[in-house]
Write a structure and sequence with these properties.
This protein is mostly helical. Helix content is 80%, strand content 0%. Helix 2 packs antiparallel against helix 3. It is elongated. The model has no long low-confidence stretch (mean pLDDT 91).
Protein backbone atom coordinates (compact mmCIF):
# COMPACT_ATOMS: atom_id res chain seq x y z
CA UNK A 1 0.00 0.00 0.00
CA UNK A 2 2.76 2.45 0.99
CA UNK A 3 4.76 1.56 -2.11
CA UNK A 4 1.83 2.28 -4.45
CA UNK A 5 1.18 5.57 -2.64
CA UNK A 6 4.82 6.58 -3.08
CA UNK A 7 4.68 5.63 -6.76
CA UNK A 8 1.56 7.76 -7.21
CA UNK A 9 3.28 10.70 -5.50
CA UNK A 10 6.30 10.29 -7.80
CA UNK A 11 4.05 10.37 -10.87
CA UNK A 12 2.43 13.54 -9.48
CA UNK A 13 5.83 15.22 -9.00
CA UNK A 14 6.86 14.36 -12.57
CA UNK A 15 3.61 15.85 -13.91
CA UNK A 16 4.06 19.01 -11.81
CA UNK A 17 7.65 19.35 -13.04
CA UNK A 18 6.56 18.97 -16.65
CA UNK A 19 3.89 21.63 -16.16
CA UNK A 20 6.30 24.26 -14.86
CA UNK A 21 9.50 23.29 -16.68
CA UNK A 22 9.43 26.07 -19.28
CA UNK A 23 8.57 29.00 -17.06
CA UNK A 24 10.31 27.88 -13.87
CA UNK A 25 13.01 25.24 -14.47
CA UNK A 26 14.36 25.55 -10.91
CA UNK A 27 10.91 24.80 -9.49
CA UNK A 28 10.64 21.86 -11.92
CA UNK A 29 14.00 20.59 -10.65
CA UNK A 30 12.70 20.79 -7.06
CA UNK A 31 9.64 18.74 -8.00
CA UNK A 32 11.82 16.14 -9.67
CA UNK A 33 14.24 16.02 -6.74
CA UNK A 34 11.25 15.34 -4.48
CA UNK A 35 10.15 12.59 -6.85
CA UNK A 36 13.62 11.06 -6.78
CA UNK A 37 13.66 11.11 -2.99
CA UNK A 38 10.24 9.42 -2.78
CA UNK A 39 10.54 6.83 -5.52
CA UNK A 40 10.63 3.22 -4.33
CA UNK A 41 12.08 2.06 -7.68
CA UNK A 42 14.09 3.52 -10.52
CA UNK A 43 11.42 5.67 -12.10
CA UNK A 44 10.91 8.44 -14.62
CA UNK A 45 11.88 11.10 -12.06
CA UNK A 46 15.61 10.34 -12.40
CA UNK A 47 15.82 10.48 -16.23
CA UNK A 48 13.59 13.57 -16.20
CA UNK A 49 15.86 15.30 -13.69
CA UNK A 50 18.97 14.44 -15.72
CA UNK A 51 17.33 15.75 -18.92
CA UNK A 52 16.18 18.95 -17.19
CA UNK A 53 19.60 19.65 -15.70
CA UNK A 54 21.23 19.07 -19.04
CA UNK A 55 18.71 21.40 -20.72
CA UNK A 56 19.61 24.18 -18.27
CA UNK A 57 23.33 23.53 -18.87
CA UNK A 58 23.93 21.95 -15.46
CA UNK A 59 25.80 18.88 -16.69
CA UNK A 60 27.50 18.25 -13.36
CA UNK A 61 24.11 18.37 -11.63
CA UNK A 62 22.83 15.89 -14.20
CA UNK A 63 25.79 13.63 -13.43
CA UNK A 64 25.13 13.87 -9.69
CA UNK A 65 21.50 12.83 -10.20
CA UNK A 66 22.55 9.89 -12.38
CA UNK A 67 25.17 8.80 -9.83
CA UNK A 68 22.55 8.87 -7.09
CA UNK A 69 20.25 6.72 -9.24
CA UNK A 70 23.00 4.15 -9.88
CA UNK A 71 23.90 4.03 -6.18
CA UNK A 72 20.28 3.63 -5.02
CA UNK A 73 19.30 1.15 -7.72
CA UNK A 74 22.56 -0.68 -8.39
CA UNK A 75 20.76 -3.74 -9.79
CA UNK A 76 18.83 -1.71 -12.36
CA UNK A 77 20.46 -1.56 -15.82
CA UNK A 78 18.47 1.58 -16.71
CA UNK A 79 20.13 3.44 -13.84
CA UNK A 80 23.58 2.44 -15.10
CA UNK A 81 22.66 3.39 -18.66
CA UNK A 82 21.59 6.81 -17.41
CA UNK A 83 24.89 7.13 -15.56
CA UNK A 84 26.91 6.21 -18.66
CA UNK A 85 25.10 8.84 -20.70
CA UNK A 86 25.64 11.43 -17.96
CA UNK A 87 29.38 10.64 -17.85
CA UNK A 88 29.53 11.21 -21.59
CA UNK A 89 27.93 14.64 -21.08
CA UNK A 90 30.96 15.69 -19.02
CA UNK A 91 33.48 13.93 -21.28
CA UNK A 92 34.45 11.23 -18.80
CA UNK A 93 34.64 8.46 -21.37
CA UNK A 94 36.35 5.84 -19.22
CA UNK A 95 33.72 6.21 -16.49
CA UNK A 96 30.99 6.05 -19.14
CA UNK A 97 32.52 2.85 -20.48
CA UNK A 98 32.52 1.34 -16.99
CA UNK A 99 28.83 2.22 -16.59
CA UNK A 100 27.90 0.68 -19.95
CA UNK A 101 29.87 -2.45 -19.10
CA UNK A 102 27.94 -2.64 -15.81
CA UNK A 103 24.69 -2.56 -17.80
CA UNK A 104 25.96 -5.54 -19.81
CA UNK A 105 26.78 -7.41 -16.60
CA UNK A 106 23.17 -6.98 -15.49
CA UNK A 107 21.43 -7.47 -18.83
CA UNK A 108 22.25 -8.05 -22.51
CA UNK A 109 21.15 -4.75 -24.04
CA UNK A 110 21.90 -3.61 -27.56
CA UNK A 111 22.04 0.09 -26.62
CA UNK A 112 24.65 -0.52 -23.93
CA UNK A 113 26.73 -2.78 -26.19
CA UNK A 114 26.64 -0.22 -29.01
CA UNK A 115 27.62 2.59 -26.63
CA UNK A 116 30.49 0.56 -25.19
CA UNK A 117 31.63 -0.46 -28.67
CA UNK A 118 31.66 3.15 -29.80
CA UNK A 119 33.79 4.18 -26.81
CA UNK A 120 36.23 1.32 -27.40
CA UNK A 121 36.45 2.29 -31.09
CA UNK A 122 37.16 5.93 -30.24
CA UNK A 123 39.89 4.78 -27.84
CA UNK A 124 41.53 2.75 -30.60
CA UNK A 125 40.67 -0.57 -28.96
CA UNK A 126 39.20 -2.11 -32.09
CA UNK A 127 39.10 -5.76 -30.97
CA UNK A 128 37.05 -4.85 -27.89
CA UNK A 129 34.84 -2.62 -30.05
CA UNK A 130 34.21 -5.50 -32.45
CA UNK A 131 33.26 -7.77 -29.56
CA UNK A 132 30.76 -5.24 -28.22
CA UNK A 133 29.24 -4.64 -31.66
CA UNK A 134 28.86 -8.42 -32.07
CA UNK A 135 27.14 -8.51 -28.68
CA UNK A 136 24.86 -5.69 -29.74
CA UNK A 137 23.87 -7.62 -32.84
CA UNK A 138 23.22 -10.76 -30.79
CA UNK A 139 21.05 -8.70 -28.42
CA UNK A 140 18.93 -7.43 -31.30
CA UNK A 141 20.58 -4.23 -32.51
CA UNK A 142 20.10 -5.15 -36.17
CA UNK A 143 22.18 -4.87 -39.30
CA UNK A 144 23.88 -1.60 -38.36
CA UNK A 145 25.66 -3.43 -35.51
CA UNK A 146 27.03 -5.88 -38.09
CA UNK A 147 28.41 -3.06 -40.21
CA UNK A 148 30.05 -1.50 -37.15
CA UNK A 149 31.39 -4.93 -36.20
CA UNK A 150 32.90 -5.33 -39.67
CA UNK A 151 34.55 -1.90 -39.45
CA UNK A 152 36.03 -2.66 -36.02
CA UNK A 153 37.26 -6.08 -37.12
CA UNK A 154 38.86 -4.52 -40.18
CA UNK A 155 40.56 -1.90 -38.00
CA UNK A 156 41.74 -4.67 -35.66
CA UNK A 157 43.37 -6.42 -38.62
CA UNK A 158 41.05 -9.43 -38.85
CA UNK A 159 40.17 -9.06 -42.53
CA UNK A 160 38.53 -12.48 -42.91
CA UNK A 161 36.16 -11.94 -39.98
CA UNK A 162 35.45 -8.39 -41.17
CA UNK A 163 34.50 -9.68 -44.62
CA UNK A 164 32.25 -12.36 -43.10
CA UNK A 165 30.50 -9.75 -40.93
CA UNK A 166 30.09 -7.44 -43.91
CA UNK A 167 28.64 -10.27 -45.99
CA UNK A 168 26.16 -11.09 -43.22
CA UNK A 169 25.25 -7.39 -43.07
CA UNK A 170 24.62 -7.43 -46.83
CA UNK A 171 22.12 -10.27 -46.47
CA UNK A 172 20.06 -8.25 -43.99
CA UNK A 173 19.72 -4.85 -45.63
CA UNK A 174 17.76 -3.92 -48.77
CA UNK A 175 19.94 -4.34 -51.87
CA UNK A 176 22.77 -5.33 -49.54
CA UNK A 177 24.43 -7.79 -51.87
CA UNK A 178 24.46 -5.16 -54.61
CA UNK A 179 25.99 -2.68 -52.17
CA UNK A 180 28.56 -5.12 -50.78
CA UNK A 181 31.45 -4.09 -53.02
CA UNK A 182 30.83 -0.40 -52.19
CA UNK A 183 30.81 -1.25 -48.48
CA UNK A 184 34.11 -3.11 -48.83
CA UNK A 185 35.63 -0.17 -50.71
CA UNK A 186 34.44 2.16 -47.95
CA UNK A 187 36.28 0.06 -45.35
CA UNK A 188 39.52 0.31 -47.28
CA UNK A 189 39.04 4.06 -47.81
CA UNK A 190 38.55 4.58 -44.05
CA UNK A 191 41.70 2.60 -43.32
CA UNK A 192 43.73 4.77 -45.76
CA UNK A 193 42.34 7.99 -44.21
CA UNK A 194 43.37 6.83 -40.74
CA UNK A 195 46.87 5.81 -41.85
Amino acid sequence: MLRSLRSALVRFTVRRAAACQREAPKRAALWLELGCALTPTFAESYPALVRLRRAIEDRWGALAAAQEAAERFAENPDAWMLLGEAFQMVFRQQDALHAFEQVLVLEERPDAALAAGDLYRRAGRHAEAAARFARAYAAGAGAEALRLNAQALFQAGDLKAADEALHLWATQVPDGLARLSDARAELFAEKKRES
